[in-house]
Amino acid sequence: MRAATVERKTRETEIFVALELDGSGDYDIETGIGFFDHMLEGFAKHSMIDLKIRAEGDLHIDMHHTVEDVGIVMGQAAAKALGDCAGIRRFGAAYIPMDETLSRAAMDISKRPYLVWRVNFARPKVGDMDTELFKEWFHAFAMNAGLCLHVENVYGENTHHIIESCFKATARAFRDALELDPRSDGDTPSTKGVLGG
C-alpha cells in the first residue's frame, strides 16, 4: 500500500497529513481556512488520493504559514508514499475548463523539483484568503514531493474559477503520473535507473 503519514510542528504551525495514493478520493480536511479546505478537497477528489489533513496555525497573524506548511507536509507525505517511484507512469498532464476559465498542468515526478507558475489574478483576495498564497502552496508541494510542475492559466476572468481549475488540473496530472503502469516491469521509469540528481 502506497501510503504515508507525516507530522510537523513549529512555533507557527502544527500540521498532520495522512494520504493514500491508491485511494478513492476520500477526504477529511480542516485547516481553519474555508476556501483552502475547498481547494484541497477538490485536489483529493480529482487525484483519487485519500487525504486527511489537520492544521493549526497562527491565523491571528495571517494565513501564510498555514498554507505553506500544509504544502510542505503534504509534499513530504506524497514523496514518502511514492518511495523509489518504481513502476509509475511518471508523467501527467491535464487541461481543466471551469466556465469561462481554462487552466493546464503538466507534471514529471522526477525528484528534481521545479515550479513554473503562469497564473495571474485580477483580485488580491478570494474571501479572506490572499491569492498570492496559492503560488506558495504549489511551490511547497512541488518542492517537497519532488515534482517538476508547470501550472498555467490559459485564460479566464473569475478568480475563484482560475484557482479551482489550477488545483483540479494539477490533481488530474498527479493522478496520471503516480499511477502504476501495467506495461512496466516495475523498474524506475528512467534510463538512468534512478530519479533525481
Automatic annotation (TrEMBL):
GO molecular function, one term: imidazoleglycerol-phosphate dehydratase activity
EC number(s) from the headed UniProt entry: 4.2.1.19
Origin superkingdom: Bacteria
Keywords: Amino-acid biosynthesis, Cytoplasm, Histidine biosynthesis, Lyase
Localization per record: Cytoplasm
Keyword Lyase (UniProt): yes
Cytoplasm found in the keyword field: yes
One Gene Ontology CC term in the entry: cytoplasm
UniProt cross-references to PROSITE patterns, sorted A to Z: IGP_DEHYDRATASE_1 (PS00954), IGP_DEHYDRATASE_2 (PS00955)
PANTHER family: IMIDAZOLEGLYCEROL-PHOSPHATE DEHYDRATASE, IMIDAZOLEGLYCEROL-PHOSPHATE DEHYDRATASE HIS7
Name the UniProt record assigns to this protein: Imidazoleglycerol-phosphate dehydratase
